TrEMBL record:
It comes from Halosimplex carlsbadense 2-9-1. It comes from the Archaea. Substrate binds at R107, N109. This is SMP-30/gluconolaconase/LRE-like region-containing protein. The lineage of its organism: Archaea, Methanobacteriati, Methanobacteriota, Stenosarchaea group, Halobacteria. One of its GO terms (molecular function) is calcium ion binding. SUPFAM superfamilies: Calcium-dependent phosphotriesterase. Keywords: Metal-binding, Zinc. Residues 1-23 are annotated as: Disordered. The keyword Metal-binding applies. Binds 1 divalent metal cation per subunit. The keyword Zinc applies. Residues 21-262 form the SMP-30/Gluconolactonase/LRE-like region domain. GO terms for biological process: L-ascorbic acid biosynthetic process.
Length: 303
């Protein structure tokens, strides 16, 4: 029986009250963790060196996800399918993509850069109930469909050998694993990895640790949990907040996990911490006894 004193204890490190805290990402050039409040289109920056955090962008609409470009700029994936660069000195740059489908009726959600600088970027279902889509953004700025009829496109991650991609569909309550062709960016041969239909909560954001285990965040599940490559749960860490939305590793040695939470409910007015749990909407840090690896950087051409 593991000694309870060994149990990882989440620490609230940025006491934001995010409606939908999401998309944490460690920026190694700056030594900070950026994260979003999606519907507020707010971008936050937490500095572990002094424990400070600040809102560095309050944009229009919604920002669903972002990657870090080779240049160090962030590439924001927004509502209506707009994709545009941002950095602290120049602010928002010219959009790489203005909208996904012309009507702008869906927003991007979770995204990930691949080893060749492309970005897999998924969308939410549309207000009229159309399912989302997982797109692939190539470095020339062209978008193509990677997976259609995605039931709330969410967390993504690569296996350590870069031969497979994990893909989360929150409304389907599942994480799948696709064969990934690094040369072309193509995904194929979907196989089930985790069926979460009988679990408490819904799989949301995810990351892959240095041992190749998947860490999934559970919305309305109040936890992150790790799964070995065979899909067997290995560890779980409970949070006081119910809506645990995303997890990533950061720090110079990638030995700290950063976890976002939400006041929810995803769309519509935010709830309260009395409803959603202590610290809901804040960024947490936790030492899991295992580290992560740096995320790939996007290399999307910008103007
Ligand atoms: O990633 C997300 O999780 C929630 C819904 O499950 C939120 O709405 C979405 O952005």
């Amino acid at each position: 029986m593991a000694d309870p004193t060994d149990r990882p204890e989440p620490r609230r490190v940025a006491d934001t009250h995010c409606h939908t805290g999401e998309g944490p990402l460690y920026h190694p050039d700056e030594g900070v963790v950026y994260f979003l409040d999606i519907p507020e289109a707010d971008l936050y920056r937490y500095d572990p060196a002094d424990g400070s955090h600040e809102r560095v962008l309050d944009a229009e609409g919604a920002v669903g996800g972002f990657t870090i470009q080779d240049s160090g700029d962030l590439l924001l994936f927004c509502d209506g399918g707009r994709i545009q660069p941002w950095n602290r000195d120049d602010g928002l740059g010219d959009p790489v993509v203005e909208s996904i489908d012309g009507e702008g009726n869906s927003r991007f959600n979770d995204v990930i850069a691949d080893p060749r600088g492309r970005v897999f970027c998924g969308t939410m279902p549309t207000p009229d109930g159309e399912p989302g889509t997982l797109y692939r953004l190539d470095t020339d700025g062209s978008l193509s469909v990677a997976v259609e009829d995605a039931r709330l496109s969410n967390g993504l991650g690569f296996t350590p050998d870069r031969r497979h991609v994990y893909f989360t569909e929150t409304e389907a309550g599942r994480i799948s694993r696709y064969r990934y062709d690094q040369a072309t960016g193509d995904l194929s041969d979907r196989e089930p990895f985790l069926d979460a239909s009988d679990l408490t909560g819904h799989p949301d954001g995810m990351t892959v640790d240095a041992e190749g285990h998947v860490w999934a965040a559970f919305w309305d599940g109040g936890r992150i949990a790790s799964y070995d490559p065979e899909g067997t749960e290995r560890q779980r860490v409970e949070f006081p907040a119910k809506k645990v939305s995303a997890v990533t590793f950061g720090g110079p040695d990638y030995d700290t996990a950063y976890v976002t939470t939400a006041l929810g409910p995803g769309e519509g007015p935010a709830s309260t911490r009395e409803e959603e749990g202590d610290g809901a909407g804040a960024l947490f840090a936790v030492d899991l006894g295992v580290g992560g690896v740096p995320e790939f950087r996007s290399r999307i051409e910008t103007r």
